[in-house]
Amino acid sequence: MQRLNHRSFGSCEIGFPLRGVFWSLLALFLASQLLPGLMTSVLADGPVVQAKTAPAPAKGQPSVVLITLDGLPATFLRDPAVSLPNLRRLAQQGVAAEGMVVANPSVTWPNHTTLITGVYPATHGVLFNGVLQRPGLGLPPKTEAKKDGRELVAVPTLFDFAKQAGLATAGINWPCTRNIESVDDNMPDVPEFFESSTPGLINDLKQNQILTEELIKNFYKYSGTIRDDMWTAAATYIIRHRMPQFMTIHLLNVDGVHHKYGPRTPGGDAAVAYIDTCLGRILDAIESSGNAGNTTIIVTADHGFISIPQSIRPNVKLKQAGLLTTSGNRVDSARAYAIPEGGIAMVFLTVPESKASDRQKVVELFKDSEGISSILQPAEFATYGLPDPADHPGMADLILVAKDGYGFSAVATGDETIVESDTTLGTHGFLSTNPKMNAILVMAGRGIRTGASFGTENSPGIVRNVDVAPTIAHLLKLKLPQTDGRILTEVLSPQE
């Protein structure tokens, strides 16, 4: 595999127009966010001290590294105005999809779980970035992120099957993996994740000065750029010094910046350019690991992104209809309550005795409302890979679907039901039938045919994210007993 040098980040060879204004904005953006955290990446290649319990490296054995660049739409790869030199070069060495259809809801935790299970949320059970909790009848539900992986995911994952086969595993900032014993080196995507990370890995990172007590103490006070820098440094350390046979890496900053500023904005473009340098560092680490020739690299995302100049406040409308009460900024009671997931809102009816009539009230309330595209009933959920509320305690009773340009807000105070977006100018969560939710997918390395084409005769260039897990399982000679996807044989080498 040709070495991918992340130092080519600013080169002209990929056809990226070197616009002075853009690069000035990029430099200012990165300088303002990154300088306090630069030492993480610099020290990642320093003297090596390893824990005695570290997993054996996978040199000479097949490895798969699955990398997600959270919130990177499929269209960015072919847009010459978007700086992605490392990702594009990887695509030239392997294969890139026109788009990857994601799962519903098109949010982070459900889709990361689909990527490593090969099944839709109706089966694996993850519907939010956390677990839904119902405090009681007539009270608004909420989500809780501080949960173990086994409390979140209802089926075995690739980590479990890899571990059963005796393979070394690692996960960096991967959702729904807290306290999962099948991840040897684990830094899960969960609040207070340092406490939930593998102690041996944390010790190694401290001894090699990749982690400091100051960084640990103030981690969530730093920008997403610095957090991605640290996760990249941790990932490259593992790859260089004990390359696992199955590894997942989740980089998050693009999603956060796209939420704040929207996609294809100066801030968003700068975040994308920076994440490509992180990818370059990971690719360089793989090249120097001694196992590059045996490694398959998969780079993908969990969803696309849409700009939302308008914000819908369904809970204000429910309050005005007498289905919800508030005091101050608190919701005191709710016969109906909407939890937003970007382009959809999950509506929960909390009182069994009035559920039928409350359902009809909600439908009448929103069917002709501004910004509402459709209202999904339980009979339609299976079509979108979602469970019936009778089968899953965390599933909503109704789903409101927003039109393009609108997103949902949880705000229940005030009287305005539609407001101009101010703090959130971009979102996802729209139904996966919206092509703007399609994510990138690039595969290269061992077992991948350079220049092959994804897709079938009926959908050329398009794949589904449920296809990723069965393809990884095939590459690692693992068996997935249950899957909604298929092995992407059209891009695999004949010997595979």
Automatic annotation (TrEMBL):
Q: Secretion signal: which residues?
A: none
Q: Which Pfam families match?
A: Phosphodiest
Q: Drop me one GO molecular function for this one.
A: hydrolase activity
Q: What is this protein called?
A: Type I phosphodiesterase/nucleotide pyrophosphatase
- What organism is this sequence from? Planctopirus limnophila (strain ATCC 43296 / DSM 3776 / IFAM 1008 / Mu 290)
**Lineage of origin:** Bacteria, Pseudomonadati, Planctomycetota, Planctomycetia, Planctomycetales
